[in-house]
Amino acid sequence: EQRSAHRREKRTIEREATTRCFACREFGHAAKDCPKEKEQQQRSNELNGGVVCCYRCGSTEHSLAKCRKPSPKTGSELPFAHCFICQKRGHLASKCAENKGRGIYPDGGCCKLCNSVDHLAKNCPLNEAQRSGGSTAASTASIGLSDMHNMRTGADEDDFHAFSRKR
Protein backbone atom coordinates (compact mmCIF):
# COMPACT_ATOMS: atom_id res chain seq x y z
CA GLU A 1 0.00 0.00 0.00
CA GLN A 2 2.88 2.37 0.75
CA ARG A 3 4.47 1.45 -2.57
CA SER A 4 1.36 2.38 -4.53
CA ALA A 5 1.03 5.65 -2.61
CA HIS A 6 4.68 6.41 -3.37
CA ARG A 7 4.20 5.61 -7.09
CA ARG A 8 1.04 7.74 -7.19
CA GLU A 9 2.90 10.65 -5.58
CA LYS A 10 5.79 10.24 -8.02
CA ARG A 11 3.42 10.30 -11.03
CA THR A 12 1.76 13.44 -9.67
CA ILE A 13 5.12 15.19 -9.34
CA GLU A 14 6.12 14.16 -12.88
CA ARG A 15 2.77 15.36 -14.28
CA GLU A 16 3.05 18.71 -12.51
CA ALA A 17 6.57 19.21 -13.87
CA THR A 18 5.22 19.11 -17.44
CA THR A 19 2.08 21.16 -16.73
CA ARG A 20 2.17 24.67 -18.19
CA CYS A 21 0.36 27.48 -16.40
CA PHE A 22 -1.97 29.43 -18.70
CA ALA A 23 -1.72 32.46 -16.41
CA CYS A 24 2.06 33.04 -16.18
CA ARG A 25 3.11 30.54 -18.90
CA GLU A 26 5.66 28.84 -16.64
CA PHE A 27 5.96 25.10 -16.07
CA GLY A 28 5.26 23.30 -12.80
CA HIS A 29 1.72 24.34 -11.93
CA ALA A 30 -1.73 24.96 -13.40
CA ALA A 31 -3.40 28.37 -13.67
CA LYS A 32 -5.69 27.60 -10.72
CA ASP A 33 -2.58 27.18 -8.52
CA CYS A 34 -0.53 30.04 -10.03
CA PRO A 35 1.32 32.02 -7.35
CA LYS A 36 1.68 35.03 -9.69
CA GLU A 37 -2.03 34.97 -10.50
CA LYS A 38 -2.94 34.83 -6.81
CA GLU A 39 -0.63 37.78 -6.17
CA GLN A 40 -2.16 39.64 -9.13
CA GLN A 41 -5.68 38.83 -7.94
CA GLN A 42 -4.84 40.13 -4.49
CA ARG A 43 -3.50 43.40 -5.98
CA SER A 44 -6.56 43.67 -8.21
CA ASN A 45 -8.88 43.09 -5.26
CA GLU A 46 -7.09 45.82 -3.32
CA LEU A 47 -7.55 48.22 -6.24
CA ASN A 48 -11.20 47.31 -6.79
CA GLY A 49 -12.12 46.82 -3.15
CA GLY A 50 -12.46 43.04 -3.64
CA VAL A 51 -15.17 43.40 -6.30
CA VAL A 52 -15.07 41.89 -9.79
CA CYS A 53 -16.04 44.34 -12.52
CA CYS A 54 -16.89 44.33 -16.23
CA TYR A 55 -13.78 44.99 -18.34
CA ARG A 56 -15.75 47.08 -20.85
CA CYS A 57 -17.93 49.40 -18.73
CA GLY A 58 -16.54 48.95 -15.21
CA SER A 59 -19.87 47.83 -13.75
CA THR A 60 -19.81 45.56 -10.70
CA GLU A 61 -23.28 44.24 -11.59
CA HIS A 62 -22.14 41.95 -14.43
CA SER A 63 -19.09 40.48 -16.18
CA LEU A 64 -17.83 41.22 -19.69
CA ALA A 65 -19.78 38.27 -21.12
CA LYS A 66 -23.08 39.86 -20.08
CA CYS A 67 -22.19 43.49 -20.88
CA ARG A 68 -24.68 45.17 -23.21
CA LYS A 69 -22.61 48.30 -23.81
CA PRO A 70 -21.11 48.31 -27.33
CA SER A 71 -17.34 48.41 -27.78
CA PRO A 72 -15.99 51.97 -27.98
CA LYS A 73 -15.08 53.18 -31.48
CA THR A 74 -11.94 54.91 -30.22
CA GLY A 75 -9.52 54.04 -27.45
CA SER A 76 -9.22 50.75 -25.63
CA GLU A 77 -11.87 48.10 -26.25
CA LEU A 78 -11.54 46.94 -22.63
CA PRO A 79 -10.53 50.01 -20.56
CA PHE A 80 -11.07 48.23 -17.22
CA ALA A 81 -9.11 45.07 -18.12
CA HIS A 82 -5.75 44.45 -16.44
CA CYS A 83 -2.99 42.54 -18.27
CA PHE A 84 -1.05 40.07 -16.12
CA ILE A 85 1.95 40.15 -18.46
CA CYS A 86 2.77 43.88 -18.53
CA GLN A 87 0.64 44.88 -15.50
CA LYS A 88 -1.07 47.69 -17.46
CA ARG A 89 -4.77 48.47 -17.87
CA GLY A 90 -6.70 48.54 -21.13
CA HIS A 91 -6.06 45.11 -22.61
CA LEU A 92 -5.87 41.40 -21.82
CA ALA A 93 -2.76 39.23 -22.10
CA SER A 94 -3.80 37.80 -25.48
CA LYS A 95 -3.54 41.32 -26.97
CA CYS A 96 -0.42 42.39 -25.05
CA ALA A 97 2.50 43.77 -27.08
CA GLU A 98 4.88 42.00 -24.69
CA ASN A 99 3.24 38.64 -25.42
CA LYS A 100 5.56 38.07 -28.41
CA GLY A 101 2.78 37.34 -30.89
CA ARG A 102 1.53 34.25 -29.05
CA GLY A 103 -2.04 35.50 -28.74
CA ILE A 104 -4.17 32.83 -27.12
CA TYR A 105 -1.66 30.03 -27.80
CA PRO A 106 0.71 29.77 -24.80
CA ASP A 107 3.02 27.25 -26.49
CA GLY A 108 2.97 28.97 -29.86
CA GLY A 109 0.85 27.74 -32.74
CA CYS A 110 -1.99 29.35 -34.61
CA CYS A 111 -5.38 28.82 -36.22
CA LYS A 112 -5.12 26.00 -38.75
CA LEU A 113 -7.32 27.81 -41.26
CA CYS A 114 -5.89 31.35 -41.39
CA ASN A 115 -2.72 31.23 -39.20
CA SER A 116 -4.05 33.87 -36.79
CA VAL A 117 -3.08 33.71 -33.11
CA ASP A 118 -6.20 35.61 -32.03
CA HIS A 119 -8.76 32.78 -32.17
CA LEU A 120 -9.16 29.00 -32.23
CA ALA A 121 -9.87 27.17 -35.50
CA LYS A 122 -13.41 26.43 -34.32
CA ASN A 123 -14.00 30.22 -34.05
CA CYS A 124 -12.23 31.17 -37.30
CA PRO A 125 -14.00 33.72 -39.52
CA LEU A 126 -13.12 31.55 -42.55
CA ASN A 127 -14.92 28.65 -40.89
CA GLU A 128 -17.99 30.85 -40.28
CA ALA A 129 -17.91 32.12 -43.88
CA GLN A 130 -17.84 28.58 -45.26
CA ARG A 131 -20.69 27.49 -42.99
CA SER A 132 -22.90 30.40 -44.01
CA GLY A 133 -21.91 29.94 -47.67
CA GLY A 134 -23.38 26.45 -47.71
CA SER A 135 -20.07 24.61 -47.78
CA THR A 136 -19.84 21.28 -46.03
CA ALA A 137 -17.96 20.59 -42.84
CA ALA A 138 -15.87 18.04 -44.73
CA SER A 139 -14.23 20.69 -46.91
CA THR A 140 -13.47 22.78 -43.83
CA ALA A 141 -12.01 19.76 -42.07
CA SER A 142 -9.79 18.88 -45.01
CA ILE A 143 -8.07 22.27 -44.73
CA GLY A 144 -7.15 21.62 -41.11
CA LEU A 145 -6.23 17.98 -41.60
CA SER A 146 -3.79 18.79 -44.41
CA ASP A 147 -1.85 20.95 -41.94
CA MET A 148 -1.60 18.02 -39.56
CA HIS A 149 0.72 16.28 -42.03
CA ASN A 150 3.10 19.25 -41.75
CA MET A 151 3.17 18.64 -37.96
CA ARG A 152 1.73 22.07 -37.16
CA THR A 153 -0.46 21.21 -34.24
CA GLY A 154 -1.78 23.61 -31.67
CA ALA A 155 -3.86 24.04 -28.56
CA ASP A 156 -7.20 23.63 -30.30
CA GLU A 157 -6.35 20.52 -32.33
CA ASP A 158 -8.80 18.34 -30.36
CA ASP A 159 -11.60 20.87 -30.78
CA PHE A 160 -11.00 21.05 -34.50
CA HIS A 161 -11.01 17.29 -34.98
CA ALA A 162 -14.15 16.99 -32.87
CA PHE A 163 -15.76 19.42 -35.32
CA SER A 164 -14.60 17.41 -38.33
CA ARG A 165 -16.21 14.20 -36.99
CA LYS A 166 -19.70 15.73 -36.86
CA ARG A 167 -20.37 15.26 -40.61
TrEMBL record:
A GO biological process held by the record: mRNA processing
Keyword Cell division on entry: no
Domain spans labelled CCHC-type: 20-36, 83-98
A GO cellular component annotation in the UniProt record: nucleolus
Name of the featured protein: CCHC-type domain-containing protein
Keyword annotations from UniProtKB, A to Z: Metal-binding, mRNA processing, Zinc, Zinc-finger
InterPro entries membership: ZCCHC9, Znf_CCHC, Znf_CCHC_sf
Record-linked SMART domains: ZnF_C2HC (SM00343)
Domain of life: Eukaryota
SUPFAM superfamilies documented for this protein: Retrovirus zinc finger-like domains
Gene3D superfamilies registered for this protein in UniProt: Zinc finger, CCHC-type
Molecular function via GO: nucleic acid binding; zinc ion binding
Organism per entry: Meira miltonrushii
Family annotation (PANTHER family): ZINC FINGER CCHC DOMAIN-CONTAINING PROTEIN 9 (PTHR46242:SF1), ZINC FINGER CCHC DOMAIN-CONTAINING PROTEIN 9 ZCCHC9 (PTHR46242)
Keyword Zinc-finger attributed: yes
